[in-house]
Amino acid sequence: MKNKFTLLEFFAGGGMARLGLGDSWECLFANDIDPQKCASYRANFRANIDERDIAALVVDDLPQLQADLAWGSFPCQDLSLAGRRGGIKAHRSGTFFEYWRLINALDDRGFAPKLVVLENVVGLLSSNGGRDFQIICEQLMTSGYLVSALIIDAKTFTPQSRPRLFIVGIHSTIARENNDVASIETAPPSLQAAYNQFSTKLKSNWIWLDQVPAKMRTTQLADIIDWEAPHWNSAAQTDNLLSMMSDPQRKRLDGIVRNRARRVGTAFRRTRIENGNPVQRLEARFDGIAGCLRTPAGGSSRQIVIAIEHGNVRTRLLAPRESARLMGIPDDYLLPNSVSAALKLCGDGVCVPAVRWLSEMIIAPTLASHQTNWFANQRDKTRLIA
Question: Which tens digit of pLDDT belongs to each residue from 265-314?
């Protein structure tokens, strides 16, 4: 049995899927178009990464063998509920089809990856009335994969609210008869609703997998925040931010201050319509979990830390290293020097421990079972020949 599983990592970013998979995996090929993410990938893994647009890649650029897994965290901007929702055929999220073009080209040469995983926002389930999700699942089915999907929230593992959809394809050549280890009742309602729109044929090529456990997290937001960090806002800047809170939010904050509790929260500036007029609000949470990290697109997209200690309130922007911790990235990972580039790497990435859970609970056992069955078959053939 080979020592390591093999990986093709598309839309690799800073290599967070590779981090999650761990040392039992060997990456044979990685690709991303962002120069600063690629620089971080090279610095941290001491490995090459192809920096071309995925549309420029051809099958001859890829290793000519069957990889165990092809990972694809393709862009979410056209699918996110926070965006314009152009759908799977729009420019950025439409790069899925370039990824799948390469998978099909490998298949034509007999090198179809044994498993494929696609990661994206949960909004994919409802994009274009659910049709975009169906299109992706149909592509996998047509190429010989049994299909499943899970919704995994980063808050299960780290103090960040970040639900993401993971679509898993298991090639029919390695699928086991007992792959269907769960049922529709275990799935979230949004995934059940998407499945119920499938054709009979697509449903017959779907398998239900166990969903992620309710909680495995041992850390709170206060554990990953640098309380001694420099560059806190001035008292006047903090007062200005807090003045943007709604009355209920401000009363909650004042209650925490009066109790002299040591608490930390995060907040976003958002524009709301009140009495017909746009009003900028500071919307905070103090439940021990940060809001979902975003790719920086102006100051309003960055989370604000609100630290309360000894009756005092301090505020500042969330730092890149703190963002990395929220994604489960270890502190020895080398982030880009640019704050914007570091926040983009984290905001565009996949939660590292979520990948680890997926690997340990689904990916690796499926591959290991296939290897065991393959070697057993070889032994049986040997006995027959003898």
Answer: 999 999 999 999 999 999 999 999 999 998 765 445 689 999 999 999 99
> In sequence order, which residues have a C-beta less than 8 Å from that of residue 44 and are 6 or more positions away?
14, 15, 333, 334
Q: What is the pLDDT of residues 117-150, one digit of tens each?
A: 999 999 999 888 889 999 999 999 999 999 999 9
The list of the chain residues with pLDDT below 70 reads 1-2, 76-93, 176-181, 296-301, 370-386
Cα dist from 362 to 302, 357, 383, whole Å:
34, 8, 32
Whether the Cβ atoms of residue 113 and residue 8 lie closer than 8 Å to each other: yes
Q: Which CATH number fits domain 5-217+351-380: 3.30.470.30, 3.40.120.10, 3.40.50.150, 3.90.1570.10?
A: 3.40.50.150
Q: Letter for the amino acid at 333?
A: Y
Nearest residue to 319 (alpha-carbon basis) of 348, 290, 284: 290
Locate the domains of the chain by residue range.
5-217+351-380, 221-336
Least Cα distance to 87 among 55, 53, 134, 54 occurs for 134
Q: Return phi, psi of residue 58, to 5°.
A: -125, 165
